[in-house]
Amino acid sequence: MADRGYLIAGNWKMNGNLESATELSSAIVGGASNILETVELLLCPPAVHLQATAAAISGTNVRLGGQDCHEAESGAFTGDISAEMLANMNCSYVIVGHSERRDAHHEGDALVWRKANAALRAGLAPIICVGETEQERLSGNAEEVVAKQLKASVPDGVDGSRLSVAYEPVWAIGSGRTPTEEEILSVHSAMRKALKDLLGHDAGDSIRLLYGGSVKPGNAAEILMLSEVDGALVGGASLSASDFLSIALAVK
Ligand code: PEP
Fold it and tell me: CB 3.0–4.6 Å: which of 86, 134, 159, 236 could bond 66 by disulfide?
C-alpha cells in the first residue's frame, strides 16, 4: 500500500468575517505543534478571507485551499474565481464537486471534471467530492453511484501527488449522522477499485481518500483508523480551532 499520509481539511463554507477568519487560522497554527508530521492540515476559508488566512498561516505547514473554482482561466464570468486566482493567493488545493455546489448550482460530473482539470492547469491539487443521496443509499446503490461519479470526474493521468478524493454522503453532511464503519469501508474500497481501474494500480493506490460528513472530535478516531481512510473533510467542526485540532490529533 502506498504511504499516503493524512489530510485533515477544513471547509469553512460561507461563514465568518475578517476577524474570525484571522482568529481561527491563528488559533489552528498555534495549536498545530502536537500534530503528527504525517498529517497535513488544510484550511479552505471563503474566498474573501483567503488573504487574511494566508497571512495567518504564512511560514507554517498549514495549507490553504479554495472551496470551488471556475473552469476558465479568466473572462466574463461575474462572481466566479479561477484556479489561477486561487494559486496566486497561495492556495495549494481546491475543493471541487462539493454536494452543496452540485445541488444548489446544478453542477454535474462533466463540469466537476473540467474544474478538476482547471485546478491541475493552475498547479493546484483538486479534492473531488463524491457521495450518494439518502435515497441512493437506501436503494443499495451507494458504491455504484460513487464509482460512477469518480469515473466521470477524475482527470486522466493524475496520481496522489495531485489529487485527493472525498467521500461525502449527502445525507451525512451537517446532519450529525454518519455511515457505519462497514459502510465507509465498503465505499472507500469501491473508490479505490474505481481509481485503480481508471488510472492504473500505482496511481490509483497513491490517491488519498478522505471521509466527510459530520466528522467531530467524538467520532474522528474511529473513522480515521479505518483502512483506506486517509483523512477527513470537515465542515461544521472546522469552525472551532479546538475541535478541528482534536480531529487532527485523532490520527494515530
Ligand atoms: C462538508 O460540508 O464538507 C462537511 C463535511 O460538512 P459537516 O462536517 O458539517 O458535515
Answer: 86
Amino acid at 210: L
Question: Residue 117: its pLDDT value, please?
Answer: 98
For the chain, report the end-to-end CA distance as a whole number of angstroms.
Answer: 17
Q: For the chain, which residues score pLDDT lower than 70?
A: 1
* Adjacent-strand bridge partners of 44: 11
Give the CA radius of gyration of the chain: 17
Q: Write down the residue that cell numbers 474522528 correspond to.
A: 220
Map out the domains of the chain with their CATH numbers. Answer: 6-249 (3.20.20.70)
So what's the pLDDT on residue 1? 60
* 3 state DSSP class of 6: strand
Q: How far is C-alpha 54 from the chain's CA centre? A: 18
Q: How many Å lie between the centroid of ligand 1 and the Cα of residue 96? A: 14
Could you give the CA distance from residue 215 to residue 126 in angstroms, rounded to a whole number? 21
Ligand 1 pocket residue status of 71, Cβ below 6 Å: no
